[in-house]
Design goal:
Number of domains of chain A: 1
Number of helices of chain A: 4
Radius of gyration of chain B: 12 Å
Distance between the termini of chain B: 35 Å
Structural class of chain A: alpha+beta
CATH class of chain B: Alpha Beta
Largest sheet of chain B: 5 strands, mixed
Number of domains of chain B: 1
Number of strands of chain A: 9
Radius of gyration of chain A: 16 Å
Largest sheet of chain A: 5 strands, antiparallel
CATH superfamily of chain B: Beta-grasp domain
CATH architecture of chain A: Alpha-Beta Complex
CATH topology of chain A: Aldehyde Oxidoreductase, domain 3
Oligomer: heterotetramer
Order of helices and strands of chain A: EHEEEHEEEHEEH
CATH architecture of chain B: Roll
Chain lengths: ~150, ~80, ~150, ~80
């Protein structure tokens, strides 16, 4: 399941629904990311997330399919928010279900690295001292390189 | 007329996120379009930065790719969500 | 936070509470494990989980502290069920919160390996053909060895 | 009288999960207690298995450890939750 939307994400509710759809899987891993409250240039007032549909969705679908090829995964859910949001709000939720806990962990980890460095989004942080576009950090690229996958977009 | 999109930090330079544009017929490739638009916006190289990728009709292409058949051309600085 | 109890675990509710206590962390990883519906000897009717309190709790607390030393972690929650439960019910819930997603992933992964191979529990699966005590699989010990930690119990 | 606990699969052999027991004074170490109990239950080595660890008052010890001061002695086959 994939949803890219300006609607708020309720991670707890998303997990409840995912548990229903993943019944019998045995192991469920979730990741939720919140808008950080603090930027280098001060307190974050808003975060703006831009997508390029349907390229954004197509790319994430490819990553989901690749995760299903690489690991023995029963279910995957990716929710990603776009538009304007406030500090502390959930920007991304990923859930994976598998018979094997390592597969569930690795697939979730892989999907997050994809979302951070390859998914077609642009982020702008608004602080009291102005707006700033945020691009992936060197660390994010190092994390993503662990999977040594070909570029999918 | 083609739709041109400027994502992320590029829209701060171009002043718009998208526009409809008549591209002169001598601008045949993505690379030539980069240069032409960079001049037009006085972007001083912002559009030439190799980390800025170009998508024709939602497909990433190289600078040498011909642009004649494209309806929608997007300039994409480094992506990243989450 | 640590709870070892015969009360059912509601992972969705646990995540909701954890989000409150981990406000501002940025990255939350959860693992939930359900009683598998199928054993080698047939359909699982019940799972019985035995603990040895307070040794069980003391050991898990040590693992939580070790995770906090190894990674930059803001909050950890471990809920583990004991007593009798049915297939599909949640047996374990682990949540980690950090500023950094890799730290949150690794700490949750580490805690699950601890719970699977070192935490003081014993498990008995009941199927139509009888009861069987379940001990960690070779895979579980291999997973746990990744952290190359000294025995904590 | 000491409290003796048999966890996991061991309780299937001993028929109980715990019991209060008078341990003869000549049984001085954890290792000696293993042997004495294994005989007592006709456990044919189940209690001697090196994967079965012994805890004195909730602390894992070795076979050579004296048991005189312990109130509670637990026999623990391989552990694992989750």
């Amino acid at each position: 399941m994939l949803r890219v939307s300006a609607d708020p994400i309720d991670a707890s509710e998303a997990l409840k629904q995912f548990e229903q759809s993943a019944k019998g899987a045995g192991a469920i891993v979730t990741f939720s990311g919140q808008v950080r409250p603090q930027a280098n240039s001060g307190k974050v007032e808003t975060l703006h997330l831009q997508a390029y549909s349907p390229m954004t969705e197509t790319g994430i679908e490819s990553a989901i399919n690749e995760a299903k090829i690489r690991w023995s995964i029963d279910q995957i859910c990716v929710l990603h928010r776009i538009g304007d949001m406030a500090a502390g709000e959930t920007i991304v939720f990923v859930a994976t279900a598998s018979q094997h806990r390592r597969a569930a962990f690795e697939a979730a980890d892989f999907l997050m690295d994809y979302l951070k460095t390859e998914a077609v989004f642009w982020k702008k942080e608004g602080t009291a001292s102005g707006d700033q576009w945020i691009e992936p950090r060197a660390d994010d690229y190092v994390d993503a390189a662990r999977w040594a996958k070909k570029e999918t977009i | 007329m083609r739709k041109i999109l400027y994502f992320g930090r590029l829209s701060d330079i171009t002043g718009c996120q998208e526009e409809m544009l008549d591209i002169p017929s001598e601008i045949e490739t993505a690379g030539a379009l980069r240069k032409w638009l960079d001049d037009r916006f006085h972007a001083t190289g912002a559009l030439l930065d190799p980390t800025v990728r170009i998508a024709l009709d939602q497909e990433i292409i190289f600078d040498g790719t011909p642009i004649q058949s494209a309806n929608e051309i997007a300039f994409m600085p480094p992506v990243g969500g989450g």
